[in-house]
Specification:
Elements (H helix, E strand, L loop, with lengths): L8 H35 L35 E7 L5 E5 L13 E3 L13 E4 L5 E4 L52 H43 L2 H59 L5 E6 L14 E7 L1 H6 L12
Parallel strand pairs: 1-5
Antiparallel strand pairs: 1-2, 2-3, 4-5, 6-7
């Protein structure tokens, strides 16, 4: 009897199955490692100059794509990572890989226009905006804004300006969101200006009238208070107060009358003195004219003992402090004889 080296066919099948299982596991692990390495490389992208304060470091945990999901963005479509869905329905994210034509830059923060109705914003999917532009949504590791399905909404100006996307993937320049120009408020017409001015003037008049009415009311209230105090006093005291007030009123009226009389007497005296002065001056002028007509070259002018200014000593012997003066000079300048005493 000899020994046989042949194995059982059942055992051979089991060995082959083990080899095939081990090979399949190695291939699967290799694929997973490659995908994880590529995802980690994309997830460790660091943004240093993001506008809006979104500075992201490496992703905390990376989600492995499910079988059948898109591995990378189609040609010509930009990839956005760390993206969020804004309340206006737009996507705000960082550009992961810039396109060769230079429309985007690595790490640039952009905001798209509103996402078209029916589009579901998820990782590893291409979304299309209402203007027709397309974007590939990559890793999303931020929860700063709530993510929800875009709804129908009114257009509003975006706060972040997005550069015009490339036209290769169906994008259009409409994605560049520019705030509308500010329009100044309409100027008021002449009628409106006049009406506003009239309203202001009316308000001022009403305030002044209200203030006057308040003052009058306070004055009347004070008078009523004084009257009430007087009525509250006994009858004898009221009589005494009445007599005192009457005396004060009579003394005031008497002083006013005396002042008026003194003023009237002073005015009459001044008027009379002015009349006498004019009369004496006219008389002296007549004498001067007569003396000049008679050929008299000089005459004496002085002040009489009675106080009269213009006296001719030749005709009135009681003149004092005489002074000789030419009649013609006196007629040219009568003020020379209006001073008392001798004239120098």
């Amino acid at each position: 009897m000899g020994c046989s080296n042949s194995k059982d066919p059942g055992l051979l099948d089991e060995d082959m199955m083990d080899v095939m299982d081990n090979h399949e596991k190695k291939v699967r692990n290799s694929i997973v490692k490659k995908d994880s390495a590529r995802l980690k490389k994309r997830g460790t992208f660091k943004v240093e100059q993001s506008r809006g304060g979104m500075k992201k470091k490496a992703a905390h945990e990376l989600r492995i794509r499910e079988p059948g999901e898109m591995k990378e963005a189609p040609a010509g479509i930009p990839t956005l990572v760390n993206w969020v869905l804004t309340p206006e329905g737009a996507v705000l994210g960082e550009v992961f890989e810039g396109l060769k034509n230079g429309d985007y830059h690595e790490g640039e923060l952009i905001q798209t226009s509103e996402i078209a109705m029916g589009q579901l914003c998820e990782e590893w999917k291409v979304v299309e905006t209402e203007s027709g532009s397309k974007y590939f949504l990559g890793i999303n590791d931020t929860d700063e804004l709530p993510q929800s399905q875009p709804k129908e909404r009114a257009p509003s100006p975006a706060q972040t300006k997005a550069p015009s996307p490339v036209q290769t993937g169906g994008a259009s320049p409409a994605d560049e969101i520019i705030p509308p120009p500010l329009t100044p408020p309409p100027a008021r017409t002449r009628v409106e200006s006049e009406a506003a001015l009239l309203d202001q003037q009316k308000e001022k008049v009403e305030k002044a009238a209200a203030k006057r009415a308040q003052i009058e009311a306070a004055k009347k209230a004070k008078e009523e208070e004084e009257r009430a105090k007087t009525l509250a006093l006994p009858a004898a005291r009221r009589q005494t107060l009445g007599n005192e007030e009457e005396k004060k009123r009579w003394a005031k009226n008497r002083e006013m009358i005396l002042n008026e009389q003194a003023a009237r007497i002073a005015a009459e005296k001044a008027k009379r003195e002015q009349y006498e002065l004019e009369r004496e001056r006219n008389m002296l002028m007549d004498i001067a004219l007569t003396k000049e007509a008679q050929g008299v070259k000089s005459m004496t002018v002085g002040v009489s003992s009675e106080g009269h200014k213009y006296v001719i000593p030749e005709e009135n012997g009681n003149a004092v402090k005489p002074k000789r003066i030419k009649p013609s000079e006196m007629m040219r300048n009568p003020s020379l004889v209006e001073e008392k005493g001798p004239m120098e």
